[in-house]
Amino acid sequence: MRVGIRRELEARSFDQTLVRWILRFAGNPNISVRLWNGDEFQIADGNPVACMEIHDRGVLFELMRSPSIGFGECYSQGRIEIDGNFRAFMVELTAGVTKRRRRSHYGPKLRSLIHAARVNSLALSRHNVHHHYDLGNDFYKLWLDDRMVYTCAYFEDSEKTLEEAQVSKLDHVCRKLQLQPGQKVVEAGCGWGALAMHMAEHYGVDVIAYNNSHEQVRYARERAAAAGLERQVTFVEDDYRTISERCDVFVSVGMLEHVGLANYRTLGALIDRCLAPDGIGLIHSIGRSHPAPPDKWILKRIFPGGHVPSLGEMAAIFEPYQFTVLDIENLRPHYAKTCAAWLENYDRVADRVVDMYDETFARMWRLYLAGSSAAFETGTMQLYQVVFAPQDNNSLPMTRAHQYPGSH
Amino acid sequence: MRVGIRRELEARSFDQTLVRWILRFAGNPNISVRLWNGDEFQIADGNPVACMEIHDRGVLFELMRSPSIGFGECYSQGRIEIDGNFRAFMVELTAGVTKRRRRSHYGPKLRSLIHAARVNSLALSRHNVHHHYDLGNDFYKLWLDDRMVYTCAYFEDSEKTLEEAQVSKLDHVCRKLQLQPGQKVVEAGCGWGALAMHMAEHYGVDVIAYNNSHEQVRYARERAAAAGLERQVTFVEDDYRTISERCDVFVSVGMLEHVGLANYRTLGALIDRCLAPDGIGLIHSIGRSHPAPPDKWILKRIFPGGHVPSLGEMAAIFEPYQFTVLDIENLRPHYAKTCAAWLENYDRVADRVVDMYDETFARMWRLYLAGSSAAFETGTMQLYQVVFAPQDNNSLPMTRAHQYPGSH
Questions:
Q1: Is the pLDDT assigned to residue B66 strictly greater than 60?
Q2: Cβ of B319 and A333 within 8 Å?
């Protein structure tokens, strides 16, 4: 070994050797690297996907200290730059890291458990939600669809635009829940209210929708009033844990990621209290194929308090209350497309984001969107839609054909 | 309390009081009871579903010692008789027991874990499989469909007969797997070979199918030869753990129930070794909404070595190998209908079963079929079809519309 290392040091600069070590840790992605001194080289054989420019030697030490935080911080600060297709670069990088980690199980599982021990209190949850969702509605308006749906879209066919695919998602969720006019729906974590309003307007149900974010609730109320839906839709600015209404349908799209593993039983108990014996529920959440702690940089900069569960971990919501899981669909490729569409929109308005915040913030969010798309593309992240019901609810349809209108 | 008990004893016979205690443990089902001395009474208000005749006092002690084994043994021996619709009686009884247990979680979970510690060795597995499946093909021919499919059927519409619904199930599985001509399929636990032959004949794939049961494999080979499918379908009489072939598709319908929790990682590792990177798999298994040990009587008389997992427990197959779960469908109501159809067939040939075996055996199987139908009807048991793939397989369709031909 010593001889090998010495030979490597002789043949290349010390800096190049450090880069190679770092990239070996990242599974030898097929990229090239350009250093601050103009040195350019590539690691894997073949045509590199893109070139990673490293602007100062300090970056190498940041990457060695913590690859995830190091890359996130240095990219945000402009000390790393990607020459070429940024999303393709992130896919290549993520695929490499994921493959490298493929054989470990107990380590990530244990770290996931340790991470899970941290409980999101009511106050902390409000703080965390504020961090992400109260950035200002104007910011999200820049790059989301018109309805402001900030969750995975459903590209029923590949021709759909993001706008259309978000409506398809809303309808896909409603069809899975088999909404009937007059039913009472509780929504936990309603974002800017798009699903609540869609359910009320197109399926004739009454909705009580909870959200901790002041900015989002204010916006949702304005929109519901403008659409004349104030009677059918009530937006409550409060934590999901304060939900007490009885309902026929429980739905939560994109909230579980913020709940934290330690609160899954609390969530299950809440649904158990609220849901009618012949009721039905749906939880839509980012997930993983196996337990693992959150990405450190995402946790630090984007989603404090977040946890992305495996299906085995999600069982803690349903199994203690003997909910029957009726249907799980994995929409992973749809979220890769959704994030790619967001990134495209975002790149078009990047200058305005810099004006609203600053360069570092703008780059941070660009990395987050590209990285998320890459994570779904490579299977590092999944998107689960779980439909469930009380164990002895026999009023449900025999097949899922109703989810695919036009069939039979 | 003492005064209450004394008053009860005064008002009723000691035997009646025992019965009431036993039935309170069973969640006060809406049935009436007739004792050996002609005493008849009912527990719950309303029109009883059926009458349970208890033919001797010893039955009461058997029921108190172990409700599940006591009921199973006494019914098999004819010491308990049901006057009225047997299946409806079993549904009422099972619903009561299930409701009574509803609030406990850690107890059943712990007992499930303890049960799981018992590993099914190769020799033990062969013994267990022999116990159930080598009863003789003639026995199963009496009450299964023509294809001898001994797993949950798929009643796409309620008009389907059992025969038709079994074909629908085979096609539903094949559509979920998106079989392509020329693909290589490994089947673990193939019963009498119906799925293997259906896949080969109608989807043009090559199948290697494993089964530990000598009787079943012999029969499957004969049928494949008669159908001219010997080249496409190979039946191997061996344990699933000896599978070593590489394949595009892995499928296992109704075997997991016999694998035992302690072997789930072994099964996952096996699939990981066999399945191509762009492959796909399906596991179809009876399940539960929450972890619990098997029913004691079923374990003793019907399925030695069996374990019926919750989805959380099934995660042990997929998560260590980072398989992505793509799709889970719960076919619980279909299995209630399937078992009811089997019971109907069985009751028509009960005399012949008595001739082949004896009265006790015939009653034992009647109880097993009626009890299974009741377990699915009441949500005590579930039927999960889990479709999975290697984490980074991006060659899969975006939606599940292909499972519902005629849609879009």
A1: yes
A2: no
At residue B43 the predicted structure's pLDDT band, cuts being 50, 70 and 90, is: confident
Cβ atoms B215, B134 nearer than 8 A: yes
Note whether A155 contacts B398, CB cutoff 8 Å.
yes
In the prediction, which pLDDT does B11 show?
Answer: 54
Residue A31 corresponds to which amino acid? Answer: I
- What does each C-alpha distance from A170 to A152, A156, A176, B71, B408 come to in angstroms? 10, 12, 10, 49, 18
What are the tens digits of pLDDT across the range B294-330?
A: 888 988 888 887 899 999 999 999 999 989 999 999 9
Residue written as token pair 């969530």: A267
Q: Say if residue B52 is in the same domain as residue B130.
A: no
Mutation for B interface: A311, A378, A380, most B CBs within 10 A: A311
Q: Quote the CA–CA distance of B51 and B41 in Å, as a whole number.
A: 9
CA A183 – CA B92 distance, rounded (Å): 29
User: Does any domain span residue B135?
Assistant: yes
Whether B106 is covered by a domain: the verdict is no
Taking one residue from A and the other from B, the number of pairs with CB-CB distance under 8 angstroms is: 164
Element (H or E) spanning B25, and its range? helix B14-25
Residue A348: which CATH number? Answer: 3.40.50.150
| Tokens encoding B192 | 């009498």
User: Within this chain, do residues B87 and B120 fall inside the same structural domain, yes or no?
Assistant: no
Structure tokens at A91: 């896919």
Does the distance separating the beta carbons of A399 and B401 come in below 8 Å? no
Same domain for A233 and A268, yes or no, is yes
Of A52, A70, A100, at which residue does a domain stop?
A: A100
Residue range of the domain that includes A11: 2-100
B231 shares its domain with B128 = yes
Whether A92 is in a domain gets the answer: yes
* Domain shared by B71 and B149, yes or no: no
B327 interaction partners in chain A (CB closer than 8 Å): 328-330
Q: How far is A294 from chain B (nearest CA, A)?
A: 16
Domain boundary residue among B100, B129, B155?
B100
| Tokens standing for residue A6 | 């010495």
CATH assignment of the domain containing A12:
3.30.1050
Contacts of A394 in chain B (CB under 8 A): 333, 377, 379
Is B20 a domain residue?
yes
Q: Are residues A25 and A148 in the same domain?
A: no
Q: Do A214 and A258 lie in a common domain?
A: yes
How high is the pLDDT of residue B408?
44
Q: Which residues of B touch A404 (CB under 8 A)?
A: 399-401, 403-404, 407-408
pLDDT tens-place string over residues A280-308? 999 999 999 999 988 889 888 888 878 89
Q: Are strands A382-390 and B32-34 parallel, antiparallel or unpaired?
A: unpaired
